[in-house]
Description:
Blueprint (H helix, E strand, L loop, with lengths): L6 H16 L15 H10 L5 E10 L23 H6 L2 E6 L2 E2 L20 E2 L3 H8 L3 E3 L9 H14 L3 E3 L7 E6 L2 E9 L11 H14 L2 E7 L15 E3 L2 E4 L1 H11 L3 E5 L7 E4 L2 E4 L4 E3 L12 E10 L5 E12 L3 E4 L4 H13 L5 E3 L4 E4 L1
Parallel strand pairs: 1-2, 1-15, 2-5, 3-4, 5-6, 8-9, 9-12, 12-14
Antiparallel strand pairs: 1-16, 7-8, 10-11, 13-14, 16-17, 17-18, 17-20, 19-20
Helix pairs in contact: 1-2
Amino acid sequence: MKPTNNFFALALLSGILVSSCSYASNNKELTVKEDENCDSIIQDTLDKPETTTLTMTFVGDVMMGTNVPGNFITPNRGRTLFQDCDSIIRASDIAIANLEGTCYEGTDGEQRKMTNPNTYFIFRMPGDHADRLAEAGFDAVNMANNHTFDFGMTGRRNTLQNIKRTGIEVAGLRELAEGVILERKGKKVAYIGFAASCTKVLDMLNKAEVDSMVTKYRKKSDILIVSFHGGAEGTAHQHVPRKTEYYVGEERGNVYEFAHHCIDMGADIVIGHGPHVPRGMELYKGHLIAYSLGNFCTPYRMGTKGITGYAPLLEVTLSAEDGTLKYGQIHSFRQQQGIGPRKDASHLAAKNIRQLTIEDFPTTKLDISPEGALTVK
């Protein structure tokens, strides 16, 4: 993002203040007493630091196509998947996605057995698809999810190396890549990702690990982003239940309790994904919680019809001083099979999240317009 140039605004203000000193007016808002030092007023205004903000974009699940099982790859090898949204992503200071699956060349790695092919899939995106993420403008991806181990430790390491090859950072992997620290506008921004009931990732069900990681990265940063892959899956699970959720026998966490706890521990914003559908948002102690951004770019092997096809892109502007939300925008996209997210002029994703927010968090101080504008009440 380009820095704001306030030269002309300050020059205008200086002129107003100087004029005020030499012109007596009955209007108290325009009058400066004759004994006030106008030069001092102008200098104080010039010396006052501009409030720094950071603009960030977040999306949910990204699985750009898989070559196993079968061959579900777009004809253009993903080159047009992000064409409707890359300008928004590249314009932000930091952009983060959840990488739902492995991504590397070759066939190394032990393939996870699908106990029930109707409810569980495995994903391996071709290695060149990592370049699509970099071209779109993403700075970091989360790998704490239930598909990062689809091809064992070999597949995980290959994916980590391939993603980092493009310059994108990776978070969420215990020991391998726990967190990310990015510097923007002189501020250090840390990002860590958690998941529930997943192998060798930062575990949102392990309170000691959550506390340890949040404390560790809070000390290293000015702004701390936390994401989680949790909550039950599917259209029957759009609402945040404020209790522990389960899906196909797996514990998927109490996402409400987790998000609040992370902010209490020092997180500035908490971003959720995992249910494959959007969920509501909440402002807690001035900090934004997005409970699920659903799917974003899943052209094959995931649902793209109805609500599962809603693909919100969340753009937020935070105070770089305390991480509180200033304002934001839910950009609405809809997925098409084999194509990816495309602009949705009817704003269905934003309207969906707005309604879920009203129903699940009626007292929150977050307002979402039908077009997706986020404002603090």
